[in-house]
Write a structure and sequence with these properties.
The protein has six helices and four strands; from the N terminus they run H-H-H-H-E-H-E-E-H-E. The protein is about 60% helix and about 15% strand. It is elongated, with a radius of gyration of 68 Å. The longest helix has about 90 residues, at about 25-110.
Amino acid sequence: MPKKSTKMSGLQCLATENVWFDKQRYDDAEKCFYEGANGTAAKAKTAVLQPKEAPQKRRHRNSSSHAAGDQELVSRMKGMELENQTLHKVVEEMRAALKKLELRVASLEKSPAAVTCAKAAPVKAAPVKPVKVENGDDDDSDIDLFGSDDDEEAERIKQERLDAYAAKKSKKPALIAKSSILLDVKPWDDETDMGKLEECVRSVQMDGLLWGASKLVPVGYGIKKLQINCVVEDDKVGTDILEEELTKFEDYIQSIDVAAFNKI
């Protein structure tokens, strides 16, 4: 009887426990526990490794910065050396120039009289012409001390040159103004004898008139005009005189026109 009661009490105890009913919750808790343990170990491992790796990186950075600084320092030193060399050259040149200047000043100070004598140009006195005195007179009233004879000679030469220039200029021919005139001489009709018309035109002769080439130019309806060139002197012959003389041949010439007028 008592054994049965103990068994019943164990079953009752198991019946009262609910661990098996919440197994999923306990499994999650166990998983979280192990994950947390693993996470702390990984963090500890990384924490242990970081202090070892950091000095290596720092050493690398320090070495690169030291190398860059050394290169910059070397380049600056080279630049300073070149600048120093150029300054030495300039100083040497200035010393040489100063020595030359000092020597020149010393030489000038030693002989100042020679320098002044060299600068001063010697003045030569004008030669004095001997004057002959006639009849033993010592009177100086007839002596020309200012060279009046030379002035008269120069004036005479100047006048001769002016006269020669005026004569040469008078012999030079004066420029004659001339003009070239192209005339259109028109007949009455197509039955007019153009050969006779040209003879009439060329028969006009006067001083300062020279006839040139001519040609027949068709006008229309079988009529041709005479186109003739002439050279005239402007002071002697004008277009009005030409027209007046040519229109006298009224049997052949109807009208006269000036086709072209050019100065020569």
